[in-house]
Amino acid sequence: MNKKKGTLMIQGTASDAGKSLFVTALCRIFARKGIKTVPFKAWNMSLNSYITKDGREIGIAQALQARAAFREVAVEMQPILVKAMGDGRCQIIINGQVDQSVNYQKKKNDYLRIYKRTIKEALKRLRQENDLIIMEGAGSPAEINRTTPDFANMFTAEIYKSPVLLISSIEKGGCLAALVGTLKLLPPAQRKLVKGLIINKFRGDFDLLKPAVDFLENYTEKEFLGVLPYLKDLNLPEEDSASLKLTNFSSQADNLKAAVIKLPHLSNFTDFNSLKMEKNLSLEYVENKKNLLSFDLIIIPGTKTTTKDLKFLKESGLAAEIKKADQAGIMIIGICGGFQMLGRKLVDKYGTEGNIKEIEGLGLLDIKTKFLNEKTTHQVKVKLNLNLKFKNKVPKFSFEEIFRGYEIHMGQTEYLNQTEELFKITERSGCRANYKDGAVNQAGNCFGSYLHGLFDNDNFRSAVLNKLRKNNGSDSSKLNDYNYQKEIEKDIDHLADVVAENIDTDKLLNLSRR
């Protein structure tokens, strides 16, 4: 191997072991050293995705990792993304574009060939243009049902015989057994690629752990590389639903209360990471029928199966509770699929979203959505609709303010009865544009948008929260006035500093160049 080139792979004993954030930390650490570093994840199954500048769709974790490495997000960083739709169906995204919605098992052999070629080509391009590739696995390399081959883990490691670090979270117990068991289940050739072990999310006195670590090192004959502490106040977005915390309560009685409806196929829950960081806002994910009248804000998020999840809302009784909240004047916001659900009707004659061909919406916005086979994926810039008649009733956005976000949707929305759009899209994928986005009701308390990442815009988020505080008579001075993007950068640097303090990263760099 060229001495200037290196690859290093991080695999875990399970989901939520800390692989994604560890890769994020390493990307920042090596990028700080002036090493041209890039993240890579060959294959992933996730409903949290991000759109590149050229309109390609990849997992959101690789977007964060690219940011940590001071690099522009590119589709080569994650060439295969699978979005589960339930009932054995999935949407397969290859090189950032939808292939088709299929029952994977029926076309498995075809996809095995495509996956192999796609992964190798993407990794080759990255290797040609970079000094160091930090690769992330998915789940565990010892998941026996994924050995034909396991594209996410050892298949990728074997392409360049990349050294593998195995990380395990001690938070939920069974960490040492998981490390031993994972190694035991690997074939000898793959076990040989594992060069070191790491324990993550440790709380307590390392001296109490050391005897177990010594045993682990002797028993597995693998070098123990370090222990990473549990970072309580880290607020970086994560792609795995296993990391999703259902509540973010505060004991202060005058805090704002927001509910995010936890749909069965909830996607892009990272849209609400900035709300989670608000110190005077309690955020709760609601998945069962519940009286919503005590909340100041109700958010219906995006979903991979809009019609199916709308049916869930109705059958669970949550739809009725949302309508009651609307009648009470509580602010309701729909994002992407949630925006579509707020309309009069959803039509899916092609079966894009599932088996439901037509379903009545919640009827809170005067719109109608038709699902198509083509997917809309763009980074966008928007401004508030200058002609909005009810602008005095919505949060006080500046008409010159530019908000950034990204579109990921299959449906096209029709505006009924002179319904007004909330935003004007002024730029799509770097090109000037003039499209409608979103809608608002006449009362001004219910609106929606296709844009993911809206709440990441500080002025948008502040305007919404200020409106809520005005509605309930709260003190607006208690708002947590912070710059979300600066907080993300601060957390990435803090994460990198902690990893650098606890792991010999120079050793990892040397290991990557063998």
Automatic annotation (TrEMBL):
Keywords assigned? Cobalamin biosynthesis, Glutamine amidotransferase
NCBIfam families associated with the record: cobQ, PRK00784.1
Q: Which gene encodes it?
A: cobQ
Q: Which GO terms describe its biological process?
A: cobalamin biosynthetic process
Molecular function per GO:
ABC-type vitamin B12 transporter activity; catalytic activity
Function noted in UniProt: Catalyzes amidations at positions B, D, E, and G on adenosylcobyrinic A,C-diamide. NH(2) groups are provided by glutamine, and one molecule of ATP is hydrogenolyzed for each amidation.
User: Where does the CobQ/CobB/MinD/ParA nucleotide binding domain lie?
Assistant: 8-239
Q: Which residues form the active site?
A: C336 (nucleophile), H452
Q: Which family does this protein fall into? A: Belongs to the CobB/CobQ family. CobQ subfamily.
State the superkingdom.
Answer: Bacteria
Return the protein name. Answer: Cobyric acid synthase
Q: In which pathway does it act?
A: Cofactor biosynthesis; adenosylcobalamin biosynthesis
